[in-house]
Amino acid sequence: MKIVIYNEKDDFNNLKQNIENFFMRKNVKCNIILVSKTEDLCNEIYDSDIIFLDIKLKQISSIDIGTMIHHLNHNIILTFITNYSHYKIDGYQAYMDRYLLNPLNQNQFDMELEQLIKDFIFFSGGFLYTEGNITKKIYYKDILYIEFISSPRKTQLHLENGKIISMNYPLKYWMNELKGLPFCQSYKSILVDLNYVAGFQENDIILTNNEHIPLSRGYKKTFMQENLAHQQKQ
């Protein structure tokens, strides 16, 4: 994993140490790049996984740099660091994935970085799918929901772009494959991506595309709890 820290003040030590401590305990190698100039940051964006940057910059506004990073590498996880909570709104306007308020102790930072890793797996993870002579990657983040169809026995992946992919796997396969990611069972045959839940109506889930998905009594309590917990993390 490649992590970039961008800070114009060259104030890297505390954050860098927190990151190193986290990955040392995980026994995972991590390449940490330190930059203090915008042009140096641009050279590192394309193959980076996570970027930490100060929300209050002099060379360029946080909104402009967040937009630039998003366009150059839309799969990157962007995290703003600041000493002031009132800068949070700027972060949301700049394609921010996470917002950290200084100072962070190691325990707080570990919890935040743990979630960042999950976000990274979700946004960059996926599987290869072959259709005809074309093989392409289907990203987990693009799946609205997965539905098991009994006849023929297949699972259908409903994607954000409206496409439906049929695969010869049971729903249990996807439950194991997506374990730890924001998917939750709403019905005995349906697995829903919580990122696309817009609301509820009686015994239905309303997705962001206005599609209604059944929410059965047996799964309702767990689904509502997991959805609330997920929304509170956002």
From TrEMBL:
Keyword DNA-binding among record annotations: yes
InterPro entries per the UniProt record, alphabetical: CheY-like_superfamily (IPR011006), LytR-like (IPR046947), LytTR_DNA-bd_dom (IPR007492)
SMART domains: LytTR
UniProt keyword annotations, A-Z: DNA-binding
GO molecular function, one term: DNA binding
UniProt cross-references to SUPFAM superfamilies, sorted A to Z: CheY-like (SSF52172)
Pfam families cross-referenced by the UniProt entry: LytTR
HTH LytTR-type domain mapped to chain residues: 127-230
Protein name: LytTR family DNA-binding domain-containing protein
UniProt organism field: Amedibacillus hominis
Classification of source organism: Bacteria, Bacillati, Bacillota, Erysipelotrichia, Erysipelotrichales
